[in-house]
Write a structure and sequence with these properties.
Elements (H helix, E strand, L loop, with lengths): L3 E6 L8 E7 L2 E7 L12 H10 L9 E3 L5 E3 L2 H19 L4 E5 L7 H14 L3 E4 L6 H11 L7 E2 L6 E5 L3 H4 L9 H10 L3 E5 L5 H5 L1 E3 L6 H14 L5 H7 E2 L1 H8 L4 H8 L3 H13 L3 E5 L1 H4 L4 H14 L9 E2 L7 H7 L5 E5 L6 E3 L8 H6 L8 E5 L3 H4 L3 H8 L4 E6 L11 E4 L21 E2 L15 H11 L8 H8 L6 H11 L15 H7 L4 E2 L9 H4 L7 E2 L3 H9 L12 E6 L13 H4 L7 E3 L1 H6 L7 E5 L4 E8 L7 E5 L10 H5 L28 E7 L4 H10 L34
Parallel strand pairs: 6-7, 6-17, 9-10, 9-13, 10-11, 12-22, 17-18, 18-19, 23-27, 24-26
Antiparallel strand pairs: 1-2, 2-3, 4-5, 4-19, 8-14, 15-16, 20-21, 23-28, 24-27, 25-26, 25-28
Length: 764
């Protein structure tokens, strides 16, 4: 008998592609692309299809697990787990205050509106600054730059792909990543369309990525982006190509920016960028002279030593050429829920409103640098981190120096994880609580509404009921909050109502925001307006709200009193003054390491799906033939890769996709603990062991980790010492020397009958 077909959408990455799930006897059995989704139109990547395997993974946690005295896990009831967590957490809060409690929020959590809102509300109700996320290894400096430019960190422009004549991608590989801080399904077609209508797509990257290979590749030295952008601004101002009318009408400080750029002509910055001056001048002129030009930077541009400055200069370059908030340039979304306005109104659009205890870093959307979690746990004093919650995250693999963090976790008085797997991080937790997959919850793409090209909105009900005893994250947060006498609501007024016994669900809150937003139905007063019920019943495949992203909306969105873009705020002037005139070469570490994404990986959480791991997949270090020949390395040879911070042993892949002097290693590997058997069998190495977690090595304006351009040295492996290091660190667990992979208790506590198997968002 054919199963029921349920229309929904994928929540692995930002295109949010339409999916059709087949459900048989209450189980999700198959996922296929939705041909009727108006944007993705029958497309889905391998990860989207493989989510059925993740969902039905026999290694999934389906019941609350409690750590026992010998380091293993045992199944307990929800009431046992929640009551004990509440009692222990309450004791910590009563003794040390809410500031002793922290939360690490992994990348997949951002794709659940209810999870996101309730975590923020929980921490706000406690009054703690210990909010950490994958953002400080990914995108937080993009938000910091927006705060400095526009006065609101969630006001982020996206490239107008449908109308642009020139697109410059910096450190972005959307043919693999499918876009980030940009929701554009079938993005390959959109990029090809630019070329087909006579435009250009230039890809600035140290590696000839699949995107760079498809279009125009501009090789650059790792971490050279700030100098490249300053040189392009220098050319534009020197040659009279700037749109001075736009600058005079829309901005403050542009003359000061022009003076700063004047010190960086392409001939002077060539040693830093590796780009020939004529090439850089051509790029600058092309952007200035195009009918519409868009500049888009992502992960590669965010993870250098000056990532906030780079994100700032990307928008400054758009403004200088009149391509900011204009058709064909970089545009701002105008979604049915004005997230920038809502975030500002309820106090979550924060930047530098508080400072970290360690290192004195500014918050970004409430986030503190995740690299400092170990030190925050280890350092005594007021605000010392004593209790940590981790949801949809695996920071032992995703933050710099995960070995140190792993040791520090043992010093916590309470650690609780909400996730689908027992992974390298939560193998050290006191409790691992089972969460739902995104197919077991309703969803609405609240954080991504403004990033859609064209504007688009979607809502989905859950596809299947939660398997086993899995619960939605917001429900778990709410239950813990009740036990310590707080309400985890993101809106302060709602927390006041909770004291009167009036509690609200995330779905009610999001419906309220939608119906009272600029595209809402105002509870029937606005004909044609939206509500959750209307999206669910009339538009199950999603709704395109306009043919193109709007232009000319920035002036009314700017948060500053003068409604002007700030091109020379004090933090940026100070950052420009800190730029070294020449690169500090270290002959002991002559190569530069960059990260990379793989089509069949998504951070650390999809290496347990057989469909994605088939074909004998291995993690390999990409090395240019010239470097490989000089070091006497060949394909498959085990090599030692070392930085000042650590060392790993990894097989080599010789490829001319790399530029000489640069090596690339995929992140998200290094599995060596927890309950995901296939991932542990294909462990790889943790590239972030080569990065530093020291406060002095973090990017100053956003606390971002330095992960792109790390100085390294490479040599043929001479001994098994590095391999032994990996093995020894795998054996650490809280209060026990037993390896986490061998201490999961009975199989009944982490597996389920075939009719019950399913999985949740995993970890970054």
């Amino acid at each position: 008998m054919a199963g029921e077909r349920v229309v929904t959408y994928c929540r692995i990455c930002e295109p949010l592609c339409g999916m059709v799930a087949t459900v048989e006897d209450g189980r999700l059995t198959e996922l296929r692309p939705d041909p009727d989704n108006p944007l993705s139109r029958g497309y889905a990547c391998p990860k989207g299809i493989a989510m059925a395997e993740v969902h039905n993974d026999p290694d999934r946690v389906l019941h609350p697990l409690r750590r026992t005295g010998d380091g293993s896990f045992e199944q307990v009831s929800w009431d046992e787990a929640l009551d004990d967590i509440g009692n222990r957490l309450g004791a910590i809060v009563n003794r040390d205050g809410g500031g002793a409690v922290g939360w690490y929020f992994g990348n997949p959590g951002a794709f659940s509106y209810s999870h996101t809102l309730w975590v923020g509300g929980f921490l706000d109700a406690l009054g703690t600054s210990h909010y950490y996320s994958a953002g400080s290894q990914d995108v937080n400096n993009r938000f910091a730059a927006s705060a400095l430019l526009y006065g609101n960190p969630v006001l982020v422009p996206v490239p107008d792909l449908t109308r642009t004549d020139f697109l410059m991608l910096i450190g972005a590989n959307p043919l693999v990543s499918h876009g980030s801080v940009l929701s554009a399904p079938r993005i390959r077609e959109q990029l090809l369309a630019i070329v087909e209508r006579g435009g250009r797509v230039a890809v600035v990257d140290p590696r000839r990525t699949p995107t760079a290979a498809q279009f125009e590749h501009v090789p650059i030295r790792p971490d050279g982006d700030a100098w490249m952008l300053l040189s392009m601004l220098q050319v534009i101002f020197e040659e009279g190509l700037a749109d001075e009318r736009y600058l005079a009408e829309q901005t403050d400080g542009w003359q000061e920016l022009a003076r700063a750029a004047a010190a960086h002509p392409p001939e002077q910055t060539a040693p830093r960028t590796g780009i020939e001056p004529d090439v850089l001048r051509d790029l600058a002129r092309a952007i200035a002279q195009a009918e519409g030009a868009a500049i888009y930077g992502r992960t590669g541009s965010c993870l250098g030593r000056h990532g906030t400055l780079v994100a700032f200069l990307i928008d400054a370059l758009a403004a200088a050429t009149g391509n900011l908030d204009t058709a064909g340039g970089s545009v701002f979304g105008d979604p049915p829920i004005a997230l920038d306005e809502v975030a500002e109104r309820i106090g979550i659009a924060s930047y530098d409103e508080r400072r970290s205890r360690i290192g004195n870093f500014p918050d970004v959307l409430g986030n503190m640098p995740a690299s400092l979690m170990a030190e925050e746990i280890e350092t005594p004093g007021e605000g010392q981190l004593r209790a940590l919650f981790v949801s949809a995250g695996n920071p032992v693999l995703s933050v710099p120096d995960g070995d140190r963090l792993e040791q520090a976790l043992g010093e916590l008085e309470l650690m609780v994880s909400i996730d689908l797997y027992v992974n390298e991080t939560n193998a050290h937790a006191d409790y691992v609580l089972p969460a739902t997959t995104f197919y077991e919850r309703d969803d609405f793409p609240l954080p991504f509404l403004a990033f859609h090209v064209p504007p688009f909105v979607h809502y989905t009900e859950r596809v299947v009921e939660p398997a086993g005893e899995a619960r939605e994250e917001w429900w778990t947060i709410d239950q813990i909050a009740r036990r310590i006498g707080i309400a985890p609501y993101p809106v302060p007024a709602l927390r006041l109502l909770a004291k009167l016994g009036i509690r609200i669900t995330p779905q009610r809150l999001i419906d309220l925001l939608l119906r009272t937003g600029p595209g809402g139905d105002l509870f029937g007063l606005r004909r044609g307006g939206l509500s959750i019920a209307k999206l669910r019943d009339r538009h199950p495949h999603g709704l395109v709200l306009a043919d193109q992203a709007p232009g000319g909306v920035l002036k009314r969105k700017l948060a500053r009193k003068r409604r002007r873009i700030q091109l020379a705020p004090d933090p940026i002037r100070e950052e420009l003054a800190r730029l070294p005139a020449a690169e500090e070469e270290d002959p002991d570490f002559p190569l530069r390491l960059i990260g990379m994404r793989e089509l069949r990986s998504h951070n650390s959480w999809m290496h347990n799906a057989p469909l994605l791991m088939r074909g004998g997949r291995t993690q390999a270090l990409r090395v240019h033939p010239e470097d490989a020949a000089r070091l006497d390395l060949g394909d498959g040879v085990a090599a030692s890769l070392e930085s000042k911070g650590g060392a790993v042993e990894v097989p080599v892949l010789v490829t001319d996709e790399m530029t000489p002097g640069t090596v690339a290693l995929p992140h998200g590997w290094g599995h060596r603990g927890g309950g995901w058997k296939l991932a542990n069998a294909n462990r790889g190495v943790n590239v972030n062991r080569l990065a530093s977690s020291d406060a002095g090595d973090l990017e100053r304006l956003a606390g971002m980790a330095f992960l792109n351009g790390i100085p390294v040295r490479l040599s043929a492996s001479q001994s098994p010492s590095i391999r032994s290091t990996e093995a020894s660190s795998a054996g650490r667990s809280r209060g026990s020397a037993a390896p986490p992979a061998a201490s999961l208790g009975s199989s009944a506590s982490i597996t389920s009958p075939p009719s019950n198997r399913s999985s949740t968002f995993g970890s970054m």
